[in-house]
Design brief:
There is one protein chain. By secondary structure, the chain is mainly α. Helix content is 69%, strand content 5%. The chain is built from 14 helices and 6 strands. A two-stranded antiparallel ribbon has the order 1-2. A two-stranded antiparallel ribbon has the order 3-4. A hairpin with a 2-residue loop joins strand 5 and strand 6. The C terminus is likely disordered.
Length: 369
């Protein structure tokens, strides 16, 4: 019996995804059932996310939905994940627990960014020490094997950077969850195809939990994931990205010719947006962490578009980027990087100048008097 499916230049053996499907469904059900009690608890104790200069909502909304998301992920992994007593798994789950606690305290007390950065750096260092490291750039800019010191520093920078990028992109209803869901499904598929089906279960479990969460988070949102969820989401995606690079590098028959740029495409929107916003703020002489409304979703909502429309447009852009990365997975890295960078620059320009473009269209379509 042929259980092979051809999808986007990939041969998917459906038998390899049985436990992935079980993880996905289990996490979805547990999260779906967990969110209503979480909302009730938050309303009882008035633990709301209140509006401020950074945020788009105008009234207090229940937060810490990440508790239900992580509960769903962990329930699925507890049932279906093959646990081994090794340092990598121990470090991973310890980091998730630590970030969950950090996120809860941040949602409750609004912890200083520098303290969060120190804790994230410490956890990223533990992950790198456990063996999850970027060891090679596979020829990107003619760089192959990295020195050990560069492996640690580059891995820590990647983990902390992606974690905070997802934390910062969580600004409107459904955006971080939607981007995270697509990224996790992509990571799960490619990890499985590359021969690491066990690690892929983490991606599918978190994806299932996010899908259930989106039912409550799409505009108008009934709950936010908060830092409780976005920190864990970004950290897990970052680890899975590094793991995919490791697996692809050691595979006998690599599915991806060049994994560094392919992995970048999976997190491109939040990473590019964070670098762009920080760069603009510093160019203007401000702190990169100063509150404003210049993120990619703000470019749309500032012009009067709804949260729902902005989230859909950015999610469609993310899907387009992922499809291009898959189609270009055997293309020279530098060329793919240029294409992806140009796509992001063009998208930001369109989002910022949408009103000007439509005014021009209206002017040229106006009948002469």
């Amino acid at each position: 019996m042929n259980d092979q499916i051809q999808l986007l230049q990939l041969n998917l053996h459906t038998s390899s995804y049985r436990f992935a499907l079980l993880c996905f469904i289990t996490a979805f059900i547990v999260t779906l059932l967990s969110i209503p009690p979480v909302i009730a608890f938050i309303r009882k104790f008035k633990l709301y996310d209140k509006p401020n200069a950074r945020k788009e909502h105008s009234s207090p909304i229940p937060t810490m939905g990440g508790i239900a998301v992580i509960a769903g992920m962990m329930a699925a992994l507890f049932l279906w994940f093959p646990f081994f007593n090794n340092i990598i798994q121990t470090t991973f789950f310890f980091s998730i627990a630590a970030l969950l606690v950090l996120g809860i305290f941040d949602d409750l007390k609004d912890i200083s960014a520098k303290y969060k950065f120190v804790i994230q750096t410490g956890l990223a260092s533990l992950v790198a020490l456990s063996g999850i490291r970027i060891t090679s750039l596979e020829g990107l800019f003619t760089i192959y094997e990295l020195p050990v010191s560069a492996q640690y520093s580059f891995t820590i920078l990647t983990l902390v950077g992606i974690t905070n990028a997802f934390n910062l992109i969580d600004g409107i209803d459904g955006l971080a969850g939607g981007l995270g869901f697509m990224s996790l499904i992509t990571l799960g598929i490619f990890l499985t195809v590359s021969g690491d089906a066990n690690t892929a279960l983490i991606a599918f479990a978190l994806a299932g939990a996010l899908l259930a969460f989106l039912y409550f988070n799409l505009n108008p949102a009934r709950i936010f994931m908060g830092d409780t969820g976005s920190l864990v989401l970004g950290f897990v995606i970052a680890i899975l990205c590094v793991r995919l690079m490791q697996v692809n590098l050691s595979a006998t028959n690599s599915v991806i010719a060049y994994s560094p740029v392919f992995v970048l495409s999976i997190v491109l929107i939040p990473v590019f947006d964070t670098l762009r916003v920080f760069g603009v703020r510093m160019w203007k002489g401000k702190s990169p962490f100063s509150p404003d409304k210049t993120h990619i979703h703000h470019l749309l909502t500032n012009q009067g578009f709804s949260h729902a429309f902005a989230a859909k447009v950015i999610s469609i852009l993310h899907a387009f980027i992922l499809l291009n990365a898959i189609w270009l997975k055997n293309t020279k890295q530098e060329l793919t990087l240029i294409i992806l960078f140009a796509l992001m620059v063009f998208s930001v320009y369109i989002f910022k100048n949408r009103t000007l473009i439509f005014r021009r269209k209206e002017y040229y379509s106006r009948k002469p008097e």
